[in-house]
Amino acid sequence: MSQNRATLGGLWWQWLPTSLGSSMLVLEIPVVAAAVARSESAGRAIAALGIAIAVIVVVNGPALALAPLVVTLDGRYARRSIRRYTLVLGVSAAVVVAALGLCRPVLVALFDLDAETIRDAGAALLALAPASVVVAIRRYQHGRLIALGATGGIGVATAVRLVASATFAWCTAPFVESGAVLGAAALTIGACAEASTLALRLRRVRVGEESHADAPPAGLGVIGAAHLPLAATRVLNMIPQLITMVGIAHAVGSLSSLAAWPVVYGLLSLFTGPLADYETVGAAALRRDPTDPVPGRLGAVLVAGVTTVYGLVLFTPLLAAYLGSFSGLTGDPLRLALTWSMCTLLIPAGWVARGYLRAGAMAGGGSQVLASGIAVHLAGLVAVLAGTLVAGLPGLACASLAVLGGVLGETAGLAIAARRHRVRAPQAVTIGD
Length: 433
Fold this sequence. Notes:
This protein is mainly α.
C-alpha cells in the first residue's frame, strides 16, 4: 500500500468535523424558518424568506467553493493573494444581493406574487446582503483549516452560529406581523458569529505557515481561472432551490407549495448539506494517490447510512412531527409536504455518488468533466421541471422530481466521463512507451 494513502478511519475523522459543522449550518435555516412561521402572516413570511434564501444561496455559490480552492492552491500562490480574492468575491456578491433586494420588478417577474410578499422578500435580501462578505471569509477559513488538518474547530464555530441566529430569530420574529426580515437578519448575525469564532481558531493554528512563505503572488484573474470550475459546481448545487422556486410560482397551487417547499428543502438539506465537503477531503486524498480506494469506501458507507436514516424520517411519524409540530405547516401546505417529500429519498445518495466522481475530477484537474456534469445536471433539472409543470402536478411535486432528475442525471454523466478517462489512460501510456 502506498504511504500516501489514507485509511478509512483517518479520512472519516477528517471529514466528520466539517460534516458536523455543515449539519449544524443547514439546521440553522429550518430553526429560523420555524420562528418565522410563528409570526402573524406565517405563509407570506415563509414564502418571502424562502425566496430570499433561494436567491442568496445562488449568488453566494462561488464563495462556497472557496474551501476546495484554498486546499487546491495552498502552497502554490501566496495566501495574501487568495485572501484578497476572497474579499473581492464577497463584496461583489453583497452588491448583487442588495441590488436584487432593491429591484422589486425583477422579483415580480420571477415569482409573480402579491406586492406584500415581494416587499418582504426584497427587504429580507437587503438584510442578508452583508452575510455574503462573511460567507466568503468563513469558507476561506474552512479551507485553511482543512489544509492544515485542524478541522476540529469548525464544528464549534458553527454551533456558535446556530445559537446566535436561533436566539435572535426566536426572540424577535414570533412577535411581529411578518418575520421574514428578522429571520434574514438572524442568519446574518449567525454568520458573523461563526466567522469571528473561526478567526480565533486560526490564530491558534500556525503549523505550516512558514513552509509557504515564499509562494509567489497571483493576480485575481489567475486565481479566478482556478476557481471557475469549482465555483460553477457549487452554484449548481444551490441553483435548484432558485429554479424550483420560480417553477413553483407558475405551477398549480403555487402559494401552498411556496410555503411548503422551503420546509421540505430544509429537511432535505439536513442530509445533503453535510455531504458537501466529502468531495473536498476525497479530492485531497486522491491528489496524494489517485488509486487510493478509501474515498470510495467512505462514499459507500455514507450512501448506506444517509439513505437508511433519511428513509426512517420520511416513512415514520417523524416526518409529520418535523413538518407540522416543529416547522408550523398546516392545511394544504402540510398535506402537499407529507405526500411529495417521499420523492426526495434517493437525492442524498445521489449527492454522495456525485461527490466521489467530482473528487476524482478535481484531483485530476478535470475541469471539462466538471463542466459537462454541470450541463447535464441543469438540463435534467429543467427538463423534469418543465415536464411536470406541463403535466399539471402540484408545485411541490414538480420541484421534488426536478431536483431528483438533475442529481441522477449529473451522476450518470460524470460516471460515463470517468469511465472514458480510464479507458483512454492506459492507451496513452502505451503509446508513450
